[in-house]
Amino acid sequence: MPTFAKLDDASDQDRPTEPPGSSTTLHTTADRQLDRLARTAQRLTGTDSSAILLVEGDHQWIAASAGHVFPDTPRTLSFFYHALQRTSMLVEDTLADPRMRHHPLVAQAPGIRMYAASPLLAEDGTLLGAFYLFDHRPQALSAMHRTCLDELAGVTASAVQQSRALASMTARNATLMEKERRMLLAIEGSGTGIWDRNVAADEIHYSRSWKALLGYREHELTNRLMDSYLRVHPDDIDYVRATIQAHFEQKTESYEVEHRLRCKDGSYIWVSSRGKVVSRTPDGKPMRMVGTTQDITAMRTISERLRQSAKLLNDLSSEVPGLMFQRQQRADGTTHYSYVSAGIADMYELDPEEDSTIAPEAIHARIHPDDLQTYLTSFEISATQQKPWQLEYRVMLPRQGLRWRYGHARPQRLEDGTTVWHGLITDATERKRIETQWQALATTDSLTQLPNRHAFMTSLAAELARLQRDSTRMAAVLMLDLDYFKSINDRWGHATGDAALRHFASLLRRQLRQADVAGRMGGEEFAVILHGADTAAAAAFARRLQESLETTPLQPEGQGPIALTVSIGIAAMYASDGTPELALSRSDQALYRAKAAGRNCIEIG
């Protein structure tokens, strides 16, 4: 009985069909080696024809044949598909098999009656195809012929594997060569040269692009290592040699230097050379080193210009009295100073980082605690409203102590939401001192150093406003007049009169509390605001002042003591007062009564 390996589902259909997507191409370029194997199989077995069918994925094709069967066959032949099994098979009489007797190659020319096949299996078991034998006569192959077919199938499988491995290797080599070609083109196009150094032979080979960097043609440079060092700038040669030696001794992972090379025309260019030892002797001595050289002259020129510009900026900013800064506040609220000039040493007694930056916290630590929140809020307002930042604030410095600073800057909003300020901070201490002096001159009586009339009236108005905000509060207003002051001027002169005014002002100041205010209203008249005092407390204050004046007479230099007395009028200030002058007027009327009563008296209005 004929043997038949497992096929597709058996049926009585006239024509077996191929699975979807499969195809068998019969007309292919012949493989001479496989053709010889096919002819060998035909001769050894004495059959009419033989064929070798190969498969790869869904593709199938006749790679070799011998005999007269196949030139007249159709392109698609499911007959071969049924034989692609992993076991040898033999059909001794195709007409006796219901699944083959109606096949065109059986029922018609060439009238195949015997059909045998052996699989082509790779070493890993992959099915590569099948080796076929055909004959127009039904017959049973001898055991020797079946063994011959199986062995030829094995030889064929090995040949196919080797052929495919060679083709794959060739394709990979072609891919690698193409990648190498593209890499070389890219390197040459980028202005980079390649060098390859034979350390033992003291030779170095350069690519065409390397020679072109220096203006040389292909044949114009030698491979002698000693010649290469002659092209290195004399000021750079020691550095280059030392860097290479350090790499040779495996102290560095790679060789990297920037140095100058002399061109063919005698000029010099700046280059960046990078390389690495790629092979060493067993004891670690370098044998071969490869690397690249790139022209960086333009980059060095730009870098030098930037360095000079930065130096110029630093030199100029160092001459500017104050601190130039760039402050950045990101959208999340975090801030940093991306640039500070050397003036930070004077403005904040701080040292910037190497990249001229500084942490905001370092600056905040120098700002007076009472001004820090105002400082931070002012930047927030400037960022939100995109309006210029201006602020006067105090700093506490380790060496300079308390100082005033004035800062101003303009904000700029970036696309990512960051606000950047470019500004200047200067010392405002002297200006604030002068302003304070002018303020004192404008509000202080120069003789007694008490507030003048204008400053006192301002304080009086402020006190009335406090009472009107809280009617439970109290305040008393006193008017004071030195008795017989004109006779002091007439008898002892105006210098003594001025001394009397200063003496009285000093005694008055000693009696005042921190919240109280005293002022000179003009001539020998003075006024006092006693904060939180009623008229009884004000009367007690007046008596203490009179007693102090009595026990502490004026003693001009070169003269005897001069007794001084003072008349005092007292009035309460009320929240109902329409103007601050009302309380002052009531105390003035009380003063008038005190003077009329004989002076050195106290009257309450």
What are its keywords?
605 residues, alpha+beta, six-stranded mixed β-sheet, five-stranded antiparallel β-sheet, 21 strands, 39% helix, elongated, disordered N terminus
Quick recap:
The chain is of the alpha+beta class and 605 residues long. It has helices spanning 32-45, 78-81, 104-107, 143-189, 208-213, 225-230, 237-248, 297-319, 344-347, 360-364, 369-385, 429-443, 453-469, 485-492, 494-511, 535-551, 580-596; strands at 23-25, 49-56, 59-66, 89-91, 114-121, 127-135, 192-198, 203-206, 255-262, 268-280, 286-295, 323-329, 335-340, 389-397, 401-413, 419-427, 475-482, 517-522, 525-531, 566-572, 602-604.
Task: Summarize the structure in words.
- The chain contains 17 helices and 21 strands.
- The protein has helices at 32-45, 78-81, 104-107, 143-189, 208-213, 225-230, 237-248, 297-319, 344-347, 360-364, 369-385, 429-443, 453-469, 485-492, 494-511, 535-551, 580-596, and strands at residues 23-25, 49-56, 59-66, 89-91, 114-121, 127-135, 192-198, 203-206, 255-262, 268-280, 286-295, 323-329, 335-340, 389-397, 401-413, 419-427, 475-482, 517-522, 525-531, 566-572, 602-604.
- The radius of gyration is 56 Å and the shape is elongated.
- The termini are far apart.
- 28% of the residues are buried.
pLDDT < 50 stretches: 1-27, 71-78
Q: Structural class, from secondary structure content?
A: alpha+beta
Task: Give the mean pLDDT.
Answer: 85
The number of distinct β-strands equals 21
How many helix segments?
Answer: 17
How large is the share of residues in beta strands?
25-35%
Distance between the ends? 150 Å
The major pleated sheet works out as: 6 strands, mixed
User: Can you tell me the overall shape?
Assistant: elongated
Q: What order do the strands of the largest sheet run in, or round the barrel if closed? A: 1-3-2-6-5-4
Radius of gyration: 56 Å
For this entry, what is the oligomeric state of its chains? single chain
Estimate the helix proportion, in percent: 25-40%
